[in-house]
Amino acid sequence: MPPPAASSRYPSPSQPSGKSEVTDLKSQLRQLAGSRAPGVDDSKRDLFKKVISYMTIGIDVSSVFGEMVMCSATSDIVLKKMCYLYVGNYAKGNPDLSLLTINFLQRDCKDEDPMIRGLALRSLCSLRVPNLVEYLLGPLGSGLKDNNSYVRTIAVTGVLKLYHISASTCIDAEFPATLKSLMLHDSDAQVVANCLAALQEIWSLEASHSEEACREKESLLSKPLIYYFLNRIKEFNEWAQCLILELAVKYVPSDSNDIFDIMNLLEDRLQHANGAVVLATVKVFLQLTLSMTDVHQQVCAIVSVYERIKSPLLTLVSSGSPEQSYAILSHLHLLVVRAPFIFASDYKHFYCQYNEPSYVKKLKLEMLTAIANESNTYEIVTELCEYAANVDIEIARESIRAVGKIALQQYDVNAIVDRLLQFLEMEKDYVTAETLVLVKDLLRKHPQWSHDCISVVGGISSKNIQEPKAKAALIWMLGEYAQDMSDAPYILENLIENWEEEHSAEVRLHLLTAAMKCFFKRAPETQKALGIALAAGIADFHQDVHDRALFYYRVLQYDVHVAESVVSPPQQAVSAFADTQSSEIKDRIFDEFNSLSVIYQKPSYMFTDKEHRGPFEFSEELGSTSITPEVSSDIVPAQQFEANDKDLLLSTDEKDDNKGLSSNNCSAYTAPYESSNISSQMQELAISGPAASATTTQSSFDFDDLLGLGLSAAPAPTPSPPLLKLNPRASLDPRAFQQKWRQLPISLTQEYSVNPQGIAALTVPQSLIKHMQSHSIHCIASGGQSPNFKFFFFAQKEAEPSDYLTECIINSSSAKAQIKVKADDQSTSQAFATVFETALSKFGMP
């Protein structure tokens, strides 16, 4: 059934059907403006509510501005509130209309009701129209001297608003001096807190160009002022208490007595019901103890402080909402990492509850891992093993990882190994996968447990393992302990025969290494599998796999004993695994205690400064790019480009997938080796000795026979194809470029390394444009800023009218260049990519 015509639809009761309804509102407000009939205020309320509701949903009701101001002449505070809300919304966008409000707002600032005086002053300061600044000075001065604390509170905030509208006017009127006097002498705590907040902001902004403001800012950290605030801290609300505590953190005490006096003053703040106050107090305690000069005294004080702050934080964890618990746990985790022994006896506080969100459970698992020691390992591991059967798969995985981390800390390894091996009997894919990864790490650190682990791992079928990391861990054990696993060569051979079905480059890399290790330990059984692995690896489209296979082939051909010493040296235990965060980063996070840095587990500069916000994002294709001088100025706006290339921020796995897809469909990477004549081309690329002779050639083919490739003679090497020749005078209209880029599919995607000289020269992007032009590759648009630059190039065949369009993104911090090529003749895309790579590799070279 078709929808009814527009004229027959029923209008929404909360939305005017057209301008007529706003006009009706205007006429009704005008009628009520001067009326004093009984019940007129109720009628005004209904009309005001309609105006506010229309304004809220985005309908322009600025046409009733004058009528709203006229109707505000009433003693009804509800009507005044709605009128002030309306005026504040439209005044900034309509400076001329805001002049109409000055008279009635100034009149209300002198009203007998302090609530109306405060609301009027707040609305007057919220107009934020520079031309009306002169009208603020009188009401603000009166408001700061008002007998009512509410009006004074509003006036203090109004001074700050005035400063942001006109800083010179605020300073000339000596409002900061008035605020300082109020801060020191006012009896109302909220007025004092507002004065402190306003002065901190004003003096911080003025300190950059005023020595007096700099001195005033430093005076806030003087001992008398700090003690003045701390002695009155109980009078303030939670927000003001946090403000004062943040100020106390910056105070530098004169001696240890000063430190202990402040801590005694704030002792009861640790018992506060508000988590923000408790965390702010904890930060003060921690910073005070760090400022102690005597090391022994500092250590004793820190231990004492940790003992004092432990109970309040643990209480907040168990009594608050999940969000508060997570915030407190994040700060506790930071403390636990620095002093785990203090929390070792409280490990039960970090047991997971069934009704907790997963993010809280994950953090608790990290806490349990951090506080595990000789006295509590058994109880903690027992609890963690229960979580391995959790219905939440991610929590189950995390619990298994936690057990493994505790085992790597060398606490009760014997019992933990037995628990880990029991996980393999649960016959759950994700449990088996996580356990295999942990068993591999455990064997790297404790090789003496290989016999117990291998006897269990040997019974696991590789067909039941699908996760790449788990499969890679199993393959590592097959290669490392091939002499202890009777079926190791045959399992590896089966995996190698299914090489093409394995999509993970990590697994293929491990297969190559494991085949090599197994060959050195059980050569007759592994010879054929190794030959197949090397042939498949060299023909692999993934660059790392190809390079490793070629390296193994060459080092084997050079000397088997050297190859064994390189690939399979004597096993040595790993003393410690690399930490994911440096100690410098952890100290920086600790310095930013009670902030988002602790929640994000990274310093603030990593998520606030622009240079730490990840790769440069191009909003719309050629957006923010500039046209190079060699092209015309009438380029089509970049926003019209299609969005099928918004894949600049790919993860490593996604890039690998894209490479694989492009290789299968469009020859994104074509290794110069075919399996049919792999031996001959490997012989050509093999490392030659000082005298390359017929004897060397013959030994090369004997070696190929050893690997089971079955070649008896060396076929003639295939001549390399000629390089693609480009037209140095190519030209392409920007509109034609845009149209082609939209229509042509991506032929290939590749990633190159840029030499250091090129990265250094990239400080001036024009240098790359000129360099590529010297190689007959022309730039049509460029953009970006360090460390990310984006270029669009085009080139043409010399012999025929065939275009190559290229998008090149260079990250100067990683020294990587990612290109996408679109071509009229896709069969020559790889040849063009070779020319492009050659030209790029010479960038910056003398």
From TrEMBL:
<keyword id="KW-0653">Protein transport</keyword>
<protein>
    <recommendedName>
        <fullName>Beta-adaptin-like protein</fullName>
    </recommendedName>
</protein>
<dbReference type="InterPro" id="IPR026739">
    <property type="entry name" value="AP_beta"/>
</dbReference>
<dbReference type="InterPro" id="IPR016342">
    <property type="entry name" value="AP_complex_bsu_1_2_4"/>
</dbReference>
<dbReference type="Pfam" id="PF09066">
    <property type="entry name" value="B2-adapt-app_C"/>
</dbReference>
<dbReference type="Pfam" id="PF01602">
    <property type="entry name" value="Adaptin_N"/>
</dbReference>
<comment type="subunit">
    <text>Adaptor protein complexes are heterotetramers composed of two large adaptins (beta-type subunit and alpha-type or delta-type or epsilon-type or gamma-type subunit), a medium adaptin (mu-type subunit) and a small adaptin (sigma-type subunit).</text>
</comment>
<feature type="domain" description="Beta-adaptin appendage C-terminal subdomain">
    <location>
        <begin position="724"/>
        <end position="841"/>
    </location>
</feature>
<dbReference type="InterPro" id="IPR011989">
    <property type="entry name" value="ARM-like"/>
</dbReference>
<feature type="compositionally biased region" description="Low complexity">
    <location>
        <begin position="1"/>
        <end position="17"/>
    </location>
</feature>
<comment type="function">
    <text>Subunit of clathrin-associated adaptor protein complex that plays a role in protein sorting in the late-Golgi/trans-Golgi network (TGN) and/or endosomes. The AP complexes mediate both the recruitment of clathrin to membranes and the recognition of sorting signals within the cytosolic tails of transmembrane cargo molecules.</text>
</comment>
<dbReference type="InterPro" id="IPR015151">
    <property type="entry name" value="B-adaptin_app_sub_C"/>
</dbReference>
<keyword id="KW-0472">Membrane</keyword>
<keyword id="KW-0813">Transport</keyword>
<dbReference type="InterPro" id="IPR002553">
    <property type="entry name" value="Clathrin/coatomer_adapt-like_N"/>
</dbReference>
<dbReference type="InterPro" id="IPR016024">
    <property type="entry name" value="ARM-type_fold"/>
</dbReference>
<feature type="region of interest" description="Disordered">
    <location>
        <begin position="1"/>
        <end position="25"/>
    </location>
</feature>
<dbReference type="InterPro" id="IPR012295">
    <property type="entry name" value="TBP_dom_sf"/>
</dbReference>
<comment type="similarity">
    <text>Belongs to the adaptor complexes large subunit family.</text>
</comment>
